[in-house]
Amino acid sequence: MQAIGLIETRGLTPALEALDAMCKAANVRMAGFKRVGSGLITVIVEGDVAAVTAAVDAGIAAYPKTGGQLVSSNVIPRPHADLARMLL
Hints:
Layout: E1 3-10, H1 12-25, E2 29-37, E3 40-47, H2 49-62, E4 69-77, H3 81-87
Antiparallel strand pairs: 1-3, 1-4, 2-3
Helix pairs in contact: 1-2
């Protein structure tokens, strides 16, 4: 794995909309889906750095049409093996 991309939303529908856009926009794979609590959902994708960056950007761009709340997004290039194991 070369990079991990995360998008955190408030609500399931916005998270699924962002994940759909991410997977369609670039050659990434869904690596995880976490329900944090209080309606917070984090979707995690993995792939090469450029693809993950493009996917996260596409997920953020597709997000406003859901009417939900985007809490956070991040791309972690070359994550440490322990961090990747903890997230995935």
